[in-house]
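Anyone opening a protein record will find just a pair of labelled lines. With that in mind, the following record should read easily:
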Amino acid sequence: MFSFFQRKNYLVDHLHGFVDIHNHILPGIDDGAKTVEKSMDLINGFSELGITHFICTPHIMHNYYDNTPETIKKAYTKLRSALESNGGPEIKIDYAAEHMIDDNFEHILETGNVLPMGKEYLLVEMSYLQPSYNFDFAIESIAGKAYFPILAHPERYMYYHGKQGKYESLKSNGVLFQLNLLSLSAKSYGPAVYKTAEKLLNEGMIDFIGSDVHNSKQLVLLKELKISKKSLELLFPIIENTIQTFY
């Protein structure tokens, strides 16, 4: 008998060994974990899911989170020390950054104050209110520095919703897309983001995934997230690509 209801799968059951390339678990330097203890709570929660490898990506955002390679390394060193003292499961962490394309981005790019992932990939974002006026030029500049630009959570930019041609244009210009796992549920960022995430996934436009987890509430949402078998099958090669690229 045909069923109108697809069986749902818990996403976290399929993330063992995953490399989380986008998160805010470094302590005290952006809107993520505020203390080392909060960082450790998040890492312990992830490790229970079989996720023990992280590239930490705090914001670099002019006039909000004016982080530098030095401030990020300091927070990383503090967390690394706590992990070594903890004696828990083996955790592998590295650090990069999530770079806002703002009026200061080109300066930090030119002066070598960006923090790439794996030496080749640069994670970038835009405001949720409006697109960055200098985005296209910034992408050209990133390529000119021999980095591959990765746009964080393209599904969350509401001003692009319904503009499929814009997503296609970004991809044709060499922009890679990183989907937030939490976007695969309407509970996290709302139904419009969920709908766009599903559309980008179904059309094969997603290159990498990350958690973008900032706090324990979001980690609980991730643990509870269920997706269809179809979406899970589409995610498998993206999960594998993320692991293979950044392990």
The chain is about 40% helix and 15% strand.
